[in-house]
Design goal:
- The strands form nine sheets. Strands 20-19-22-23 form a four-stranded antiparallel beta sheet, with no helix packed on it.
- The chain is built from 16 helices and 23 strands.
- The longest helix is centred in the middle third of the chain and has 30 residues.
- Helix 2 packs parallel to helix 11, helix 3 packs across helix 10 and helix 11 runs antiparallel to helix 13.
- 33% of the residues lie in helices and 14% in strands.
Length: 728
């Protein structure tokens, strides 16, 4: 099976022994992740924080070097400009980089988390880090020309803070909504009677006695508002205006990138669409019947039996459901062999109900509540630390030093997470789509829609399914003392918090009234406070998996496997379990992303139609962000056996306009060379051997090239250089 490495993603910046050997960028990334854990659970806000910190770290790294271009400094984003006067490089570039980067991160974290519920812990954390690094936080000068690198960090932080106050996020207004208002009245969770819903296709707020977010923060509002429905307005990293649609909804302007089209609506006038709506949410209710470890169902959850799901199957109204198995999971076939060891994966047999419950909690907001985008930074850090992993950009060339690798990987992943948030929440805000708790309870309250001759018929009711969705009979234990529930919808599902008095209890699965159905979530949280369509988890995860695949040049985790151990009767939070040790395992980055997506169905948060479009969108967003981001690294030599040979190979113009000629110039003392051109995704578009011409250059016609980033490898005998070109 090869090396087994257990992931314990609880990176805390607690001691020098813990992170002292990591790069300065890694240390500040870990500080930010801990600040996120100390804050409210706001995935959009923290995707932006992760990106802005990563992009600023990149700028402080690149201005003290000879390759690449800054992202902020000297550039304009939206209507905001970042004036910059080029500095004189100091003698000790390493010391200057670390100082500028640290002051930038310190100022940004201190500003962005000043109103955090855990601000005292966060401030203590970053003050301790500055003290350990020997930096004085009281140094506030922003005069960086011929000044200290710390001044450059302070200056850049001040400009990014100003930029963030006008980038469309409404940071100055505490990220509150400016125009959005829900159409439906809140559902009072303690009241089993469903109030009238104006539109069952639209999002419904939830009213709690006490609402506690997934970071454990008690919220003052009993009815949390929709988080970030206007986030499509935020200035993105790489999102293209060609993929943008602007809609007007009740006077509110909605900016939507990568619009997936309408979800299924509950509409009694269109039977097929209405039926698809019902099937989506019924599947969520059905999958909640998989949450009992004592039901006798045992699964092999190793990569030998799970994963390897083909996301690019043809989708249609029927195809969507064919990809999700009634017994749970998708149609992924697993892997016959670990490609790194050429050995079969060791089977891991566990109760299905343990596996599904662990998934629901592990992927909810990350095992340490760093929100989904932060979770993927933790996974990236795990990969970076793996003993089998080599930090080669695109998996090629020389091993990069830890700082350069961290800087570039954080920049690219941060840009993708930021764009994923803008895309997913722009779609959420526009379609304003219902969550399972509202849809399932509403349809159950309306009745059954399968047979007009049976009791409690209504065209907007649930479709009956033997053994899963049935009517309460007079002899049924759910009938009620006076038979008041006879004829109502009952579901075979997780029984809910009524059956849990302490964390040592376990609710199990049984028949419940549909109008009282609960997702598998904490009772003080229940469902995230924003619309369902499309899934943010699926968008974030697929985008991150795409970036990590491109970044490392490999689809697989190091060694062909990554793991997380959920200990027996230790891991689950609000009920007892798991009943055995459960080891979550992934062969590919995509397997981890797909598992995250499925966890949201078992957790009662998303139906399939929220998930699969989001996976496809996330993959697109991840590729776009990566391709856009690497252009800032242009002229970086990816690998060569001879620095002079590498420096003497050049392309011009770079970038080149599609259809124009691209020139390759190489040394006059070399005779024959081999040239290959690859897309950033690994597809070969040109390969050939070329004898030197009189003027030592080759000419390429780019008419057949698509816009994007390409890797060009030029080889002469044992010498090889790889460079990036951009076709616009």
């Amino acid at each position: 099976m090869g090396i087994r490495v257990f992931i314990f993603i609880t990176f805390l910046l607690a001691s020098r022994e813990c992170l002292g050997d990591h790069s300065i960028a890694r240390r500040w990334n870990e500080a930010l992740l801990q600040a996120i854990r100390n804050d409210f659970a706001r995935p959009t806000v923290h995707a932006r924080n992760l990106f802005h910190l990563s992009a600023g770290m990149y700028d402080t790294w690149v201005v003290y070097g000879s390759h690449g271009s800054p992202y902020f400094l000297g550039e304009q984003h939206g209507e905001y400009s970042f004036p910059y006067e080029k500095i004189t490089l100091p003698k000790d570039v390493k010391v200057a980089r670390e100082e500028a980067l640290s002051y930038y991160c310190y100022r940004m974290i201190r500003f962005r988390f000043r109103n955090s519920p855990g601000w005292e812990k966060t401030f203590q954390l970053i003050d301790n880090l500055m003290d350990e690094l020997g930096y004085d936080p009281q140094f506030t000068s922003e005069i960086y020309v011929e000044g200290r690198p710390a001044a450059l960090g302070n200056y850049l932080a001040a400009k990014v803070i100003e930029f963030g106050l006008q980038d469309g996020s409404n940071e100055g207004g505490s990220y509150q909504n400016l125009e959005y208002a829900p159409i439906n009245e809140p559902m009072v969770l303690r009241n089993p009677v469903i109030p009238e819903i104006v539109n069952p296709n639209r999002w419904q707020p939830l009213a709690f006695d006490t609402f506690i977010d997934q970071n454990g923060n008690v919220m003052t509002a009993g009815t949390p508002p929709f988080l970030s429905p206007e986030w499509g307005r935020v200035i993105p990293f790489s999102l293209n205006e060609e993929d943008l649609n602007i809609y007007q909804v009740n006077g509110m302007e909605c900016l939507v990138y990568h619009d997936p089209g309408e979800p299924f609506f509950l509409n009694s006038e269109n039977e097929s669409i209405s039926s698809a709506f019902k099937r989506n949410f019924t599947l969520v209710a059905n999958w909640s019947s998989h949450l009992d470890p004592s039901d006798g169902v045992i699964w092999d959850i190793s990569p030998g039996a799970m994963g390897n799901f083909d996301i690019h199957r043809t989708l249609g109204n029927d195809g969507l459901f064919e990809l999700y198995l009634d017994q749970g999971g998708d149609v992924g076939t697993g892997y016959s062999l670990n490609p790194k060891t050429n050995q079969p994966y060791e089977p891991q047999l566990v109760p299905r109900g343990d596996y599904t419950r662990v998934l629901a909690e592990f992927w909810a907001d990350g095992p340490s509540s760093e929100t989904p985008p932060g979770h993927w930074f933790s996974l990236l850090n795990y990969v970076n630390d793996h003993p089998l992993f080599e930090k080669k950009f695109l998996g090629k060339g020389e091993v990069l030093d830890p700082l350069e690798w961290d800087i570039k990987s954080y920049f690219l992943l941060g840009g993708a997470m930021h764009d994923a948030a803008i895309t997913a929440w722009g779609i959420k805000g526009y379609y304003d789509y219902v969550r399972p708790i509202s849809a399932i309870r509403y349809m159950s309250y309306m009745g059954q829609s399968s047979d007009e001759t049976l009791p409690n018929y209504h065209p907007e009711g649930m479709e009956l399914m033997d053994g899963m969705v049935e009517l309460v009979e007079p002899s049924d234990p759910l009938s009620g003392p006076e038979g008041e529930n006879v004829g109502k919808i009952k579901l075979l599902a997780w029984k809910g918090h009524e059956y849990i008095e302490t964390a040592e209890d376990q609710a199990g699965v049984g028949w419940v009234l549909g109008e009282e159905w609960w997702p598998y979530q904490r009772p003080t949280f229940v469902t995230p406070p924003f619309a369902g369509y499309v899934s943010g988890h699926s968008t974030f995860s697929r985008a991150a998996a795409k970036v990590m695949t491109l970044l490392t040049g490999d689809e697989y985790f190091p060694g062909g496997i990554a793991e997380f151990v959920a200990g027996k009767n230790e891991y689950l939070v609000f009920e007892e379990g798991p009943s055995v040790d459960v080891v979550l395992q992934w062969a590919r980055y995509y397997d981890a992303a797909d598992q995250c997506s499925l966890s949201r169905i078992w957790g009662g948060i998303h139906p399939p139609q929220d998930d699969l479009p989001a996976r496809l969108i996330g993959e697109t967003v991840g590729a776009e962000a990566f391709n856009f981001g690497v252009r800032y690294f242009e002229d970086v030599i990816l690998g060569t056996n001879d620095d002079e040979w590498g420096q003497s190979v050049s392309f011009f113009p770079n970038p080149v306009v599609k259809g124009d000629e691209l020139y390759l110039r190489f040394p006059t003392d070399r005779q024959d060379i081999d040239v290959s051109i690859w897309t950033i995704g690994g597809a070969l578009v040109y390969e050939g051997n070329a004898l030197t011409s009189q003027n030592q250059k080759l000419i390429f016609d780019t008419a057949s090239f698509r816009s994007g980033i390409y890797v060009v490898k030029v080889t002469h005998k044992l010498d090889m250089v790889a460079k990036l070109i951009r076709v616009e």
